[in-house]
UniProtKB/TrEMBL annotation:
<dbReference type="GO" id="GO:0006508">
    <property type="term" value="P:proteolysis"/>
</dbReference>
<dbReference type="InterPro" id="IPR001375">
    <property type="entry name" value="Peptidase_S9_cat"/>
</dbReference>
<feature type="region of interest" description="Disordered">
    <location>
        <begin position="46"/>
        <end position="65"/>
    </location>
</feature>
<dbReference type="InterPro" id="IPR029058">
    <property type="entry name" value="AB_hydrolase_fold"/>
</dbReference>
<protein>
    <submittedName>
        <fullName>S9 family peptidase</fullName>
    </submittedName>
</protein>
<keyword id="KW-0645">Protease</keyword>
<dbReference type="Pfam" id="PF07676">
    <property type="entry name" value="PD40"/>
</dbReference>
<dbReference type="GO" id="GO:0004252">
    <property type="term" value="F:serine-type endopeptidase activity"/>
</dbReference>
<keyword id="KW-0378">Hydrolase</keyword>
<dbReference type="Pfam" id="PF00326">
    <property type="entry name" value="Peptidase_S9"/>
</dbReference>
<dbReference type="InterPro" id="IPR011042">
    <property type="entry name" value="6-blade_b-propeller_TolB-like"/>
</dbReference>
<dbReference type="InterPro" id="IPR011659">
    <property type="entry name" value="WD40"/>
</dbReference>
<keyword id="KW-0720">Serine protease</keyword>
<feature type="domain" description="Cyclic nucleotide-binding">
    <location>
        <begin position="327"/>
        <end position="378"/>
    </location>
</feature>
<dbReference type="InterPro" id="IPR000595">
    <property type="entry name" value="cNMP-bd_dom"/>
</dbReference>
Amino acid sequence: MRPADIEVLAVPGRPALRGDLLLAAVSSPDLETDQYRSAIRRISLSGGETPWTQGPRDSSPAISPDGRWVAFLRAGEGKGAEGSPQVHVMPVDGGESRKLTSLHLGADAPVWAPDSRWLAFTAREAEPGRYGTEDADERTPEPAAEAPRLITRLDYRIDNVGFLRDRPKRLFVLDTFEEGEPEAVTPRDYSVSQPVWTPDGERVVVIVPHDFDRIETREHDLVAFPVDGGAPEVLAACAGYADQPVYAPDGTLYFFGTSHEDGVVVASNTGLYAVVPDGKPRRLTDVETVDIESGSGPAVPLGDEVLVAVRNRGAVELRAIATDGDGAKFDDLRVLHAGHSAVHGFAADGGTVVAVVAGLDTAGELVVLGADSPRTLTDYSKPLRDKGLCEVVELETTAPDGYPVHGWLVLPEGEGPHPVLRVVHGGPFAQQEWTVFDEAQVYASAGFAVVLGNPRGSAGYGQSHGTSVVHNMGTVDVDDVLALLDKALERPDLDASRTGIMGGSYGGFMTSWVAAKHPDRFRAAWSERAVNAWDSFAGSSDIGYYFTEGYVGADPEEQRRRSPLSYAADIRIPFAVVHSEQDWRCPLEQAQRQFVALRQAGVETEFLLFPGEGHELTRSGKPRHRVQRFEAVLAWWARHLS
């Protein structure tokens, strides 16, 4: 796989299923337009597919309960409302779509009411005079000419979105059979998210920051808003985050959530909760062993079970939780799909269950799950396989204290001995998966063996595994990172004298830390969008005000001891500092301080800065920037590991 081959990475979104109608939006990078193109495809349950829309940016299909209509989002090529995602609807038997919204900042995914007539969605509403809207004097100021922002709270912005308080996310409803603008159901005082209709169609339940967002909070409530006006009702007060509520046919409201009751505010496993009449949610899954992957979509109630995607040792498995359970452990969950793969979306209707399954040779295919073996309906990854994918070998070893360490080795073609890259993922509470990883494949195709893994602090191995680095970062996680590398270097086709270390975000922190603490292990380092100094990160990052204390603590001296910047002068190997100009998760100052400290210490260092990008550059940045970054990475390692 070469850098420009990201164009053939076709990724299906979460599927929509009703009867024999199966729809999914499939997206891929487009280097010519420097955008991501997506169109909705209709997939036959017996195999084969046809275009449902032509794009260029269609997404989020939702089929009405009566099976007659499809609502979806379509974004154009212009600015403002023209270029923002807007709600469209079209009949399932074909025809032209109707545009239902023209909101300046666009709309989020639509959700059908039980009557198949009304839709609910959330959308950001700009303060007058901001984001290209008219002010009180009917002027439309450029961004640099907008009025100053008065900021009174810590949670005023978020990476990859921007400022929040001057464009709250409101709940809207609209009648698809009538002309007119959608009606706002919630006020501008706070943002809401994840709408779901009550079974009677009279209210919409959304997630609201606790106590209607009156102060900064890391807890959520589930609140029902009557669509025809009236006072909202708090259905459940959650002890942590809440996400993706969904009603079962019997009227039970389920949602994903975390709990902060035990004092853990980071590295918390996500569980399945049910709302009970007294308003205190009941957790149906075990806190330690079950970690739901909410990014794979909401739970799907099916009979006396609820389907969820669960993280497990690099896999994302589709499993079923009994509705009458309480604190079910991982091994108690019925398996629908498991193995060396990751379920990135799923849906069910009647007795049919479909899933988007990614693996070591695919970025995602639509699969029907049944009593027999899974049946794959699509072949989106054939162009990728035609480009050539390198072999992936599972690695297992132990750290010096005997703790098990798990990971993978991506091998180049040829006999070797190959130079080696130790690539560390971000998070840290995330997991490297049993799926195609474009970065590792590009590096391996260029001749570098790539070692990947999930050291302590990662997700998918139990909550204790994730919390083991809380107030302990840069200790056992380092042991695991190096132990996995040593395991790989036992192979005769790898060259232990030519190793490099690289990573982004937490992986960038680890790169900076290891380069200072173990400089003799590596020839060079590539540290990307890293946390280098906890003291300034606490105030400059969008999440720093709680993340720093959660992982490191509030003591300034301890923050200094845990900061790679404090040891920059100990680095003796060539060092690349790589960052995005608009990164608000690990802000630019983190890179600037590291670069200056390295240069002043006489370290051979370079600073590569990507304009206009945020923290998600390597995953969802501009396609051309992603290719340019790949080219820079390969040039760096060709120079230092030749």
